[in-house]
Design brief:
The complex is a heterodimer of chains A (295) and B (131). Chain A contains eleven helices and 14 strands. Chain A has 295 residues and is α/β, with parallel strands linked by helices. With 131 residues, chain B is mainly alpha-helical. In chain B, β2 and β3 form a beta hairpin. In chain B, α1 packs across α3. Chain B starts with 12 loop residues before the first helix and ends with a helix. The chains are: A alpha/beta (295), B mainly alpha (131).
Chain lengths: 295, 131
């Protein structure tokens, strides 16, 4: 097995004049738990649809589980290796869970009925209830159950825990983690719940207006992305000239900076600017890093 | 033992785990020879990425807080044994720096700070010897 599950270079997708994805580069290591983050409309779902072959990109190259993205993608042999849970999962509303399982089982070359049964029991899903009568949370649990039955090597989840209450969400994620560790399955997910992502993901990419603005291991992002409080009277231009400083926001007693780089170096460089009387460098949570790039 | 993960804090999660195990050892909640859960089990229980848990165990091992005899799991190490004096001093100086910054911020003078600290150390020693 290759050590890279997904590699994208310069992936581009336009809808008329609107650029949905603009030269997206992305590397997802095999077996990783990677998050794609971004505000609504940033292109996350478009990206997932390109990966699953539901839409065709206008430009760029890439491979998914070793299969190149090119006309005819995805070959049938690849389809069954990818499990995709869409945001508004289109389950057949009139069917019962049991009937849906039978349907999916018939469509998949590989099927693990045991794990499906385990999921049904764990989530306490009623097998004879029709989908229309299920809550949003139950539908999310059923969608995961159906996808995991096909023993995917790559799992793509678009806002998978939407509609689950906190207890059920925790359980859902535990199950997902346990099984992906067990099977070595690669997970790519998007979520607006950044605290959840911070726990689960070892890698994160932030997408803004179709572009990847920052990408890497979550621990590296946290090591590199700092908030800096500067006291004193100093010109904005001088602060923005410091390598790594992206943005400066005026505060009553000085400035708040958003910066990338080594904390000590930032502290020393900024401290040496004329007019600066104090510098404090703060760590940021993934949510704060996200906000610093998006707002 | 129960771990509290705070994803809204800027502190990386692996660091939070390291700090909590260290504190549990310092306060006697975890004792030499106690077994930690496997990386997989703790990751699933906390719904935290297994690499994060593995990283915290590596750090704890580097600091000499835990031992991992091959393939037999992770155990709280016998204090003093595994860690060199230089490493213990390094860790303590790091902790003291943080404390000194707090003392300055809260305007606690050095005599007062030292007195409070001495009291705590004596209390910890009493608790330990009473075991």
């Amino acid at each position: 097995m290759s050590d890279v599950a997904i590699r994208l270079e310069g992936l581009t997708k336009r809808y008329g004049d609107k650029v949905a994805l603009s030269s997206v580069d992305l590397v997802v290591p095999t077996g990783s738990f990677s998050a794609v983050l971004g505000p609504n409309g940033a292109g996350k779902t478009t990206l997932f649809r390109c990966l699953t072959g539901m839409i065709r990109p206008d430009g760029g190259t890439g491979t998914v589980l070793g299969v190149p993205l090119r006309p005819g993608y995805p070959p049938l042999s690849l389809k069954s290796r990818i499990g995709y849970v869409a945001q508004a999962q289109a389950l057949y509303e009139r069917m019962t869970a049991r009937e849906l399982i039978a349907l999916c089982r018939g469509l998949q070359p590989r099927w693990d009925q045991k794990s499906v049964q385990r999921y049904m029991d764990l989530f306490r899903l009623p097998p004879n209830e029709i989908v229309r009568h299920m809550s949003t949370g139950m539908k999310a649990q059923l969608a995961l159950t159906l996808v995991m039955g096909g023993l995917p090597e790559l799992l793509i989840l678009d806002e998978p825990t939407l509609g689950l209450d906190p207890m059920n969400r925790h359980q859902y994620l535990q199950v997902l983690l346990a099984d992906s560790i067990e099977t070595g399955c690669t997970v790519v997910l998007t979520s607006h719940d950044l605290h959840q992502v911070e726990r689960l993901a070892d890698r994160a990419s932030i997408l803004v207006a179709g572009r990847v603005v920052v990408s890497g291991a979550v621990d590296d992002l946290k090591l590199n992305e700092k908030r800096v409080r500067v006291a004193g009277t100093v010109a904005e231009a001088a602060l923005l000239a410091v390598p790594g400083v992206r943005r400066a926001v005026q505060e009553p007693a000085g400035w708040l900076l958003f910066a990338s780089g080594d904390a000590e170096r930032l502290r020393e460089t900024i401290r040496s600017l004329p007019g600066v009387t104090g510098v404090q460098v703060f760590d940021q949570s993934l949510e704060e890093i996200f906000m610093s790039y998006v707002s | 033992m129960w771990y509290h993960i705070d994803p809204s804090s800027g502190t990386p999660i692996y660091r939070q785990l390291v700090d909590q195990v260290r504190q549990a050892v310092a306060s006697g909640v975890l004792r030499a020879g106690d077994r930690l859960p496997s990386v997989r089990d703790l990751a699933v229980e906390l719904a935290v990425n297994p690499n994060t848990v593995a990283k915290s165990y590596q750090e704890l091992e580097r600091e000499g807080v835990i031992e991992t005899p091959r393939g037999r799991g992770s155990f709280i190490a016998d204090r003093d044994h595994t860690v060199s004096e230089a490493e213990r001093l390094r860790q303590f100086t790091e902790a003291a720096e943080k404390l000194a910054a707090d003392a300055y911020r809260l305007r606690i003078g050095s005599d007062r700070a030292a007195a409070i600290f001495r009291e705590r150390v004596e209390e910890a020693e009493r608790r330990r010897s009473g075991e």
